[in-house]
Amino acid sequence: MITNKMRRRDFIFLIGVTSFAVSCPAKARDVPALLGFLGSGAADSSAILLDAFKEGLQDQGLVENRDYVLDVHWANGAYKRFPEFARDLAQRNPSLIMVTTIAAARAAQALNSQIPIVMTGLIDPIGAGLIDSLARPGGHTTGISSMIQDLTTKSLEFLHDAVPGASVIAVLFNPANPTNQPMLEEAITRGRTMGLALEAVPFKSPAELDATFDRVIKTRPDGLLVISDATLIDLRDRIAELALRARIPTSSSIPEMTDAGALIGYGPPRRTFYRRSAVYVKKLLNGAKPADLPVEQPVLFELSVNLRTARALDVTVSGAMLARADRVVE
């Protein structure tokens, strides 16, 4: 059962400028707009996010098969497939392309076309070179930035608070994601100041997850930190199950992982990103230019704690952490 520890709050976004509006009236369409979608995970495990996106489109008055149709490509964790997917989409002349990870965004940008690109909550798009700035993204890419690059060390701190006697923390990361290495290095640096030795374990593919977790176990960790990556999030149920079986407390910057069985999650809920990105779709279909739409960031983050997992692992979560938590899974 999930209980709210704080009054339910609407998710608020910080916009690069005070406001922006689209003056161009909606265009009449003889056929539904084709919306390309480059997903990093698998169709079954990512369905909840795609549904959130459709709900957002419905909120904007856009009805599937009447106003738009989706052309969805799932990479199943194989990011090298994105260039092929992007070229396939471009041949169909989509109205825009939705991207769920940096690799997908780069593949869409490599088309060198005028097709607008909408981010659904990407990590550090400025540092990744996808946009010029939040207020003035430039080019043909806009949408939502997750700010998760700033939360990895905080997730480590929460894990240390829950397991104060920890000395070794395994870190699961995806080397195919260009944002993961900087976040890993930052976590290692922060860990040293806390007296923690961090053991990096690279993820290779969903098919090798069990073998990867065997390497996690060999580090004999007191806890596991999962660096945020779309594919790892997509595998959250399996990761949480393996961690519980090995009796390893797990923390990440994705609150949804707590619902899957991780001990602690701290970050912005991804469903909100996908639902909010529909606002960009509506504006772009109405004639707005991506360069004129500031990139949004979340300013509120959710701390979630799984007490069921804590009991299973004999971990005592402090009253201070529970008092701070937005959600508690019991």
Helix content: 25-40%
- The rounded Rg comes to 20 Å
Major sheet characteristics: 8 strands, mixed
Write down how many β-strands occur, each being a DSSP E stretch of 2 or more residues: 15
> Would you tell me the overall average pLDDT?
89
Physical arrangement of strands within the biggest beta sheet: 1-15-14-12-11-10-8-9
Q: What proportion of the residues form beta strands (DSSP E)? A: 15-25%
End-to-end distance: 5 Å
Q: Output the structural class.
A: alpha/beta
Structural overview:
Helix content is 35%, strand content 21%. An eight-stranded mixed β-sheet has the order 1-15-14-12-11-10-8-9, with helices on both faces. The N terminus is likely disordered. The protein contains twelve helices and 15 strands. The longest helix has 16 residues. The chain starts with a strand and ends with a strand. It is an alpha/beta fold and 330 residues long. Helix 1 packs across helix 10 and helix 2 packs across helix 3.
Structural topology:
Elements: E1 2-4, E2 13-15, E3 33-39, H1 47-59, E4 68-74, H2 82-91, E5 96-99, H3 102-109, E6 117-122, E7 141-145, H4 152-162, E8 168-173, H5 180-193, E9 197-202, H6 209-218, E10 223-226, H7 230-234, H8 236-245, E11 250-252, H9 256-260, E12 264-267, H10 270-285, E13 296-298, E14 302-306, H11 307-312, H12 319-324, E15 327-329
Parallel strand pairs: 3-4, 3-5, 5-6, 6-7, 8-9, 8-10, 10-11, 11-12, 14-15
Antiparallel strand pairs: 1-15, 2-13, 12-14
Helix pairs in contact: 1-10, 2-3
